[in-house]
């Protein structure tokens, strides 16, 4: 079998390009990292997460600072959301988290609203103030049936006052 | 003339026999893979022929498939007011299904058929028997490099196909239709998961590469030593590869879940 250095070099380039393509898909698109999902881990509990999914973005003022890393159910039947954020982030302890929607039917994401305290949240801390997801269908339901059935006083308090 | 289907029992037995012969053939290849001589020069030559020379068709097809997905997806999603999810639609379709499957079908057509025809011709012209007379194992020298090269090349080509497709979707969705570049990339990145999507896609392409290499070399190796035998081996290699890839795709998707 005849060896040809040029051909072998081209094969080497091909293999490199293949590995680069796999690495690009894994790291840039798939979010793979060697040391798991490190960074600032914060928790927040919500009454309703709607269609929030793992890997949904977490933003401050529209800038992406991290993502949702886990969603689980607490003992009191509220949803506990774990966020892994940029480790450099210095959030005041009275910050708040809200689940909002991109557009009317778009993806859910978490928006953080920094507070004004001097102390900052450390990894493992809980974000104290939260605002649950707005379920559009439920709002419409309240709009249609709310006047005839009469609103329970508690119902309005649990639902955020914001309209989409 | 026998009734159609009257030889069903015979055909079934023949199928089982073929399956057994193919398993033995696989083990033969596996044996030559782990034992020297390793035939690196032959492997490099096959990598060049099967991989590098398939690059153009894979990249062009990837770009085109991505562009069509971008165009179709844009109009469909615009109807539901969900244009910002275009990246996720293009990305998930490409990574989970279209990338591995279309690449495998293209490789079967471009490289699998050539492999089967080449080996079939070698059988017909008694070149493999010539090697045996020189006490060179034809499986080690001819079959193994081709089957291994197919296994190595398919995942690489799949990854390049997907990368090209993502760019094609971006080109149409953002460049042509005027979508928002930020939301394309953001919806792509937040919806594609490493574990569920990328690993599953790469697993599929490895399995497909294994099947393609095996089927192409086996059909060539067992072809009848005539001109008709070579043509039959080439045709059946492409047909069987395509059907097997589609079936295997369903099975892997079902087993992987989500």
Give the overall shape of chain A, derived from the CA principal axes. elongated
Largest interface: A-B, 35 and 42 residues
Please tell me how large the radius of gyration of chain A is.
23 Å
Query: How many DSSP-defined strands of chain B?
Result: 0
Please describe the topology of this protein.
The complex is a heterodimer of chains A (164) and B (258).
Chain A: H1 5-29, E1 40-46, E2 57-60, E3 63-73, E4 79-85, E5 96-101, E6 108-113, E7 129-131, H2 136-149, H3 153-158
Parallel strand pairs in A: 2-6, 5-7
Antiparallel strand pairs in A: 1-4, 2-3, 3-4, 5-6
Chain B: H1 8-34, H2 40-51, H3 55-79, H4 86-124, H5 127-133, H6 138-176, H7 181-191, H8 194-221, H9 227-256
Could you please describe the fold and organization of this structure?
The complex is a heterodimer of chains A (164) and B (258). By secondary structure, chain A is of the alpha/beta class. Chain A contains three helices and seven strands. Chain A has helices at 5-29, 136-149, 153-158, and strands at 40-46, 57-60, 63-73, 79-85, 96-101, 108-113, 129-131. A seven-stranded mixed sheet of chain A has the order 1-4-3-2-6-5-7, with no helix packed on it. Mean pLDDT of chain A is 79; it is low at 148-159. Chain B is mainly alpha-helical. The longest helix of chain B is centred in the middle third of the chain and has 39 residues, at 86-124. The termini of chain B are far apart. The chains are: A alpha/beta (164), B mainly alpha (258). At the A-B interface, helix 1 of A face helix 2, helix 4, helix 6, helix 7 and helix 8 of B.
């Amino acid at each position: 079998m005849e060896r040809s250095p040029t051909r072998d070099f081209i094969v080497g380039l091909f293999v490199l390009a293949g590995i680069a393509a796999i690495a690009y898909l894994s790291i840039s698109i798939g979010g793979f990292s060697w040391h798991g999902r490190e960074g600032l881990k914060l928790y927040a509990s919500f009454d309703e997460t709607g269609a929030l999914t793992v890997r949904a973005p977490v933003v401050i003022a529209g800038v992406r600072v991290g993502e949702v890393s886990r969603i689980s159910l607490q003992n009191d039947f509220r949803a506990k959301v774990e966020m892994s954020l940029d480790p450099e982030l210095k959030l005041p302890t009275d910050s708040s988290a809200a689940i909002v929607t991109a557009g009317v039917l778009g993806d859910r994401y978490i928006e953080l609203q920094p507070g004004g305290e001097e102390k900052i949240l450390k990894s493992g801390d809980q974000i104290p103030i939260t605002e649950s997801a707005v379920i559009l269908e439920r709002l419409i339901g309240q709009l249609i049936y709310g006047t005839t059935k009469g609103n329970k006083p508690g119902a309005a308090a649990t639902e955020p006052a914001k309209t989409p | 003339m026998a009734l159609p289907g009257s030889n069903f029992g015979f055909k079934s037995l023949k199928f089982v026999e073929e399956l057994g012969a193919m398993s033995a053939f696989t083990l033969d290849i596996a044996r030559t893979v782990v034992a020297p001589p390793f035939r690196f020069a032959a492997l490099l030559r096959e990598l060049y022929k099967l991989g590098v020379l398939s690059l153009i068709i894979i990249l062009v097809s990837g770009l085109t498939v991505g562009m069509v997905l971008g165009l179709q997806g844009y109009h469909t999603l615009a109807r539901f007011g969900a244009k910002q999810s275009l990246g996720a639609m293009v990305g998930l379709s490409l990574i989970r299904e279209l990338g591995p499957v279309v690449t495998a079908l293209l490789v079967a057509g471009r490289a699998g058929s050539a492999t089967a025809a080449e080996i079939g011709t070698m059988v017909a012209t008694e070149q493999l028997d010539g090697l045996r007379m020189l006490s060179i194992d034809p499986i080690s020298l001819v079959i193994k490099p081709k089957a291994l090269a197919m296994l190595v090349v398919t995942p690489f080509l799949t990854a390049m196909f997907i990368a090209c497709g993502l760019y094609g979707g971006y080109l149409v969705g953002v460049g042509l239709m005027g979508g928002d570049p930020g939301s394309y990339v953001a919806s792509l990145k937040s919806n594609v998961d490493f574990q569920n999507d990328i690993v599953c896609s790469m697993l599929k392409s490895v399995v497909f590469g294994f099947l393609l290499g095996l089927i192409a070399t086996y059909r060539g190796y067992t072809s009848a030593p005539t001109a008709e035998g070579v043509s039959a081996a080439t045709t059946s290699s492409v047909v069987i590869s395509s059907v097997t890839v589609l079936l295997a795709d369903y099975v892997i998707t079902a087993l992987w879940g989500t």
